[in-house]
Amino acid sequence: MNLSTNCTNRCLRLGQALAPHYEVEIVGPTFGIGKNWGKGIWPPLEKVDIPIRSVAGDIMPMFVKSIRNLLKIMDGDVIIACKPRFPSFGVALIKRALSGTPVILDIDDDELAQTLPAKSFRLRRKLSYTHEYQYTSWVHRLHSKADEIFTVSENFRKTYGGVIVPHGMDPYELDPAKFNRETIRQELGIMPSDIIIGFVGTPNAHKGIDLILKALQVINRPELKLMIVGAEPEDDYVKFMNQQYGRHLILIPQQPLDLIPYFLSANDLVVLPQRNCQETFGQMPAKLTDAMAMGKTVIAAARADIPKYLEGRGLLFDAENLEELISHLVWCLNNRFEAQQLGEKARIYFLNNLTLNAMFEAMEPSIKHCLNQ
Question: What CATH number did the domain enclosing 275 receive?
């Protein structure tokens, strides 16, 4: 795991679910991103209420020192390794070999697809970066060596075993009744006539956000806009979208995690157009839980367990089917009351199935098993 990136979000949610019942801390290396190589934790984590202890990451062979430092501070009774990558699961297995500490592996993405390198990468690079594909492919084969496994979807559960632990959230933190939508929209400079589609998170190509913009271009209504919260101006994908579809875009940089409900409150719709690719196999977007918690009307690609979450509580379309997405958007524009009712039903599903307490109940048997070994 790389504490410098948004992959830490899943780790945080697991920790928040466990914190009322156990002493929890987050431990891991920081590799940074691009020009920020080796620097600091992911900025949105700076205000969280769980202790975070980080170790500076590095390339091999210098990362051996990082491993030693991680082993010194990994002093829990149970280790939950977020993602089957060497800096998390690999180091956790070394810790278990040295001290016997049980290891639970948490899988929320297809890490082999996420780290697949360019063919031009030389062997030296492949062997230098422990959080990239080569080391991930080695460690991935050891998933059955974990004492327990958590996953986020039925696809992953069938592949790896274990139990499904959904992306949960605090129902009191994400409560639409606590936020004044009109005031927030005024603060953000959104016009009363604007219809805002929201995307709160890191915009990556496999998430298919440009498909939303293609749909908006076809619908061609100037008041219909996509607001991306978490868009870094220098990101190539963000640059591409801004150049092609700038008139439909509102771009806001990364924000602290506690502001997620603030920005979601300003939205009329949330669209999650996962692409039909290996990166989205089994993936359950955490932003789906956030949107459902805030009672938002959700339109989403029918990937992984998303249909189970949204059946009768949202609108589904075949991944990358632009015509179907356009049809759903137009329906929401023409049926505002009915669309709002879908969001209210989604909120009820969240309260019953996707809270931090639901996460804890899913994890507790595995935690107890590890503690009683």
Answer: 3.40.50.2000
- pLDDT tens digits for 24-70? 999 999 986 554 444 588 877 777 889 999 998 888 999 999 999 99
Burial class (CB in 10 A: 0-12, 13-18, 19+), 334: exposed
Residue 3 lies in a domain: no
Identify the domain containing residue 55 by its residue range: 8-168+356-371
Q: Is residue 2 part of a domain?
A: no
Residue found by looking up tokens 């219809």 in the block: 195
Lowest-confidence segment of 4-13, 171-180, 357-366 by average pLDDT: 4-13
User: How far apart, in whole angstroms, are the C-alpha atoms of residue 318 and residue 211?
Assistant: 12
Cα R_g (the chain), whole angstroms: 21
What's the pLDDT score for residue 39?
Answer: 57
Based on the fold, state whether residues 101 and 239 are members of the same structural domain.
no
Nearest to 166 by CA among 150, 152, 149, 148: 152
